[in-house]
Amino acid sequence: TSGAGYSAAPGASTLPGTGVAIEPPESTSSLEPTDRADEVEVPEPNVIDTDGSQAEYQQAQIVWQSGNYEESLRLFSDFLSKYPGSERAGNAQYWKGRCLLKLERYQESISTFELLRAEYPDNHTKNSQAMQSQAVALSRLGQNEAAENLLREVITKYPTSTAAQSDLAKLSGN
User: Fold this and answer.
1) C-alpha to C-alpha distances, 131 to 97, 98, 138, 163, nearest whole angstrom
2) 51-65: buried (b, 16+ CB within 10 Å) or exposed (e) per residue?
3) What's the pLDDT tens digit per position in 10-20?
4) What are the DSSP calls for 77-105, one per residue?
5) Has residue 130 got a pLDDT over 60?
6) Predicted pLDDT of residue 6
7) What Rg value do the Cα atoms of the chain yield, rounded?
8) Neighbours of 37 (CB within 10 A)
9) More confident residue, 60 or 25
10) By CB neighbour count within 10 A (0-12 exposed, 13-18 middle, 19+ buried), where does 36 fall?
11) What is the mean pLDDT of the chain?
């Protein structure tokens, strides 16, 4: 294991000065957060299902958990088309980006995470996690400096977030 919270395939390199594992883009193994806390969405207690979107959102989550990222991507995309103003729309946008990352569609995942941050700036938990995932996508595309800068931005913008604590450990080499 290279860097706190990430796993890498044998032969992977690290982001210079960070300890963050980077695998070549053609690698079939994935550089993903190993902390599974963000893999399962806990129902938000303060979100009331006023638009009937809860069942569809939960179905997309179940499909994500099964590992069917193509179908989960479709379901989250459909959810966003059908419920763009939903309380869950920001989270759905995040999971759409994660699906794209899992499918190794890195440029699309970067665009999706950037859209999340632009359209849902108050979703601090998902934004910090999205920036972390976006850094993974950037590193997969060989844009290591941009990836490192994004990790530093997570620490600056969201210093108390779990993502920031994880990134701080990676950047300090712990």
Assistant:
1) 11, 11, 10, 9
2) eebbebbeebbebbe
3) 444 444 444 44
4) HHHHHH-TTSTTHHHHHHHHHHHHHHTT-
5) yes
6) 37
7) 16
8) 9
9) 60
10) exposed
11) 77
Structure tokens at 117: 């941050």
Give me the residue label for tokens 């706190």. Answer: 4
Q: Enter the DSSP assignment of 24.
A: -
Residue 44's φ and ψ, nearest 5 degrees, are -75, 120
Contacts with 157 (C-beta within 8 Å, 6 or more apart), sequence order: 127, 128, 131
Backbone torsions φ then ψ of 21, nearest 5 degrees: -70, 140
104: left (phi over 0), alpha (psi -120 to 50) or beta: left
Tell me 132's DSSP state: H
Q: Nearest CA to 109 among 128, 85, 139, 130?
A: 130
Per the listing, tokens 């995309």 go with 77
* Amino acid (one-letter) located at 41: E
First to last CA, the chain: 12
CA atoms within a 13 Å half-sphere pointing along the CA-CB vector of 130? 30
Q: Cβ(53)–Cβ(79) under 8 Å?
A: yes
